[in-house]
Design goal:
mainly alpha; Na+/H+ antiporter like fold; globular
Amino acid sequence: MSELFSFLKMPTELHFLVYVGLLFLISQVSARIATFFKSPHIVGYLLAGIIFGPSLLNLFNKKLVTQDLSIITDITLSIIAFSIGGSLRLSILKKFKKSILWITSLQAVGAFLIVFLAAAILMPLIVSTTESQNGFQRTFLPIALVLGAISLATAPAPILSILHEYKAKKGSFTNILLGIITIDDAIALIFYSFAMVISRNLIVGDKLDITIALFEPLTSISFAVVLGLVMGLFLKLILKFFKPKDILLGIITGAVLLTGGIAITIGISALLANMVLGIFVANLIAHERADDAFNVVESIEEPIFGIFFLIAGAQLDIRFLSKGLLLTLILLIARFIGKYFGSYLGSEISKSTPTIKKYLGLSLLPTAGITIGLVLEADFIFSRTIPFLSDLMVNAIIGATLINELISPYLVRFSLKKAKEI
């Protein structure tokens, strides 16, 4: 009789789908709890990841979080990049190009420089690690470079959520803000590509070849742009044959994942390739079909984002709480200074309105999807050579994201009210 029910014995290891199912369920429950406390969903996702991750309950262990579930990170980032690209309408860029280009450029450079300098100067003072014996150039400097590049990105999701929630008027403030957050993420990807090439050279102690440091990222960026454009042309050709929306979901999702998969296979940026694909669809495909494409993708975003951010939260290690918190505060303050005053200077040069000059910088603080995606990608590389500093970097970025997601929605709403567009 016991042999008959032997299949009911508790397995030593649960099937992968059990964990995926739990991720979906826990993320949605945590989102509802966050809503109850009037917090953004991402706060619920990240906190759930911390609670159920390796640091506390260990329902999702270290191997599962860092290796087995990495495919979910790749899928989510491809979708995020496509959606970001879709929010860049060339008609808006043409209308406000002077303000958008000046503000975007200066706030990006400002955030990079201030965060890089603050991290490079202050990290050696707050961190005592055996890794630092390898020298500043091979430890703190590469981490500071990547932190500076990652800090450029501005998360569009919280901004778009508030614009939709309050039915914001598409005035000059809102249109310039939408233009900036899209180009901002593209610039972050470009800066990150250069920072990673330089950082890898620094870590292994190789003499930095400026030609290689410039050529490798430029080649990667060029191939990513070409891939996005080719996939965009492919979509434009076939979309005319797929009218129903239920079929459109499969076509668009397939194109996004195919673009991401090809990019990862050949070693170029899946994020940039899908962002270019999103820009192509938004601007070079018939308006109604483009709107349908982004609407169907939006219908599946929430649950996928939920498990992505829950996995990201599980990366946080409470052993780094004291040092990680200090670095988090440094990053928050440095990024705010760079973003706000860079935006102010850009508004001054482009002769934007006083409202844009005073308040736009406050709307550029949200940070989430791209930022977390990039830091997890960097951790995959750095954890092999400078594991302690790499873990510290991940914890500081996740901590900064949590704090930003609690504060930034109120700053965005305040800015829009001052602009009289909600």
